[in-house]
Amino acid sequence: MKPAKIFSIIVFALLAVYGAIGFYFLPLASFTGPLTRMGKIPESLFGWTKEQPAIDPAYLVNAPWQEADMLVIGDSFSIPHLWQSVLVKNGIKVHTETWESMRDVCEDFSAWLHSKGFKGRHVAIEVVEHNFRDTLNRSVGCKKMDYRATVELPVAPPPRLMVRNASDYSGRFSVGIETEFHALQYGKLSARPDFSTWYLGNNVRMNRVRDGCKLFSHKSCRDALFLADDQAGDFEDSVLDKMQIIEDRLKGFQLVWVVVPNKTTSYLHPEKQFWNKAEERFKAPNLLKLTREKIDSKIIDLYPANETHLSTTGYLMLGDEIYRNLKTRQGQ
User: What angle do CA 69, 72, 73 make, to 5 degrees?
Assistant: First the structure.
């Protein structure tokens, strides 16, 4: 056989082997959830499977400043407008701004808000627990508003089922290999009777969750993914004093503190007392009590295993709680 022909056969054989390996590994480098992507763990093991409620797009609207009954200043938990949809459905016009645009709630906030033409009564400050202390500290130290309007992106209802594309080959080959290696490691670790925690790197950890298969719909439902740097400790009481400073700046408005518990807090550290104290002092919605009640009643995928955020189910429950809080305070 001629050398050129032998070389061609070798090249085609190597390409075939590479293609076969890529056919297996590349889909593993495709992720839907942030925690599976960061931790490089397969969606087939930790992607949610239970169908979520439908959301009418008519309720995912952002009212103009001048027409709004409520201003929401929020982070990524508010950008999809999902919890706000409950208020809109109940006739409350909501205008949502991000912390990126608002920057802080400064000393001149009330006067600035009137200058925007806002005539509503309610202001909701929404921050996830993970970022609350830093966000609060910046606002307490801020003198003058520095609002910078950002482009308002279109909002669409979230998928009712997690989108999976088994033929997605857009990922990196090396990521697929690392994901498969993590899956093999997980198979060994999770089989141990004393397995409780595994740090995967890139700020992701896996924890065994009590009654996990009654709380999650993913395949490996005994375990769930969490941010590794979520703090187990509670907020110090000085945080409440700083909240009081912001309350005092908003005289004339009804301020609603929407402090969303970390996923880690809701499932692993329910003993924290901050939400009880904030409820007593500021009539804030007790969102840790809410999430614990839903977890204790075995709500599936309140926070999906591959997510840091609530599911659609969780967002609607959050909206219901905030609406109840508003109605209760109006009745006082």
Answer: 150
Beta strands in the chain (DSSP E): 70-74, 94-98, 122-128, 197-201, 204-208, 223-227, 254-260
Which tokens go with 61? 């609207």
C-alpha distances (whole Å) from 213 to each of 146, 216, 234, 300 are 47, 6, 28, 9
Using the structure block, give the residue that is written with the tokens 């509670």: 234
Radius of gyration of the chain (CA): 24
* Token pair listed for 250: 């908003």
Region 173-188 average pLDDT: 82
Question: What is the secondary structure of 75-117 as a DSSP string?
Answer: STTTTT-HHHHHHHHTT--EEEEEHHHH----TTHHHHHHHTT
| 124 within 8 A of 83, measured Cβ to Cβ | no
- Mean pLDDT of the region 206-217: 97
At 57, list the tokens: 């797009």
pLDDT digits (tens, 9 = 90+) for 10-45: 434 433 333 444 444 445 457 889 999 999 999 999
CA atoms within 13 A on the CB side of 268: 21
**HSE-up (13 A, CA, CB side) for residue 143:** 0
Kindly give, in sequence order, each residue whose CB lies less than 8 Å from that of residue 79, ignoring residues fewer than 6 positions away: 96, 98, 155
Query: How does DSSP classify residue 212?
Result: G
Task: Return contacts of 127-130, CB within 8 angstroms, 24+ apart.
Answer: 127/74, 127/75, 127/99, 127/258, 127/259, 127/260, 128/75, 128/76, 128/77, 128/259, 128/260, 128/262, 129/230, 129/259, 129/260, 129/261, 129/262, 129/265, 130/227, 130/230, 130/262
CA nearest neighbour of 44 among 52, 56, 32, 55: 32
Count Cβ neighbours within 10 Å for each residue of 95-106 and write b for 16 or more, e otherwise.
Answer: bbbbbeebbbbb
DSSP annotation of 122: E
pLDDT of residue 150: 84
Residue 214's beta-bridge partner residues?
none
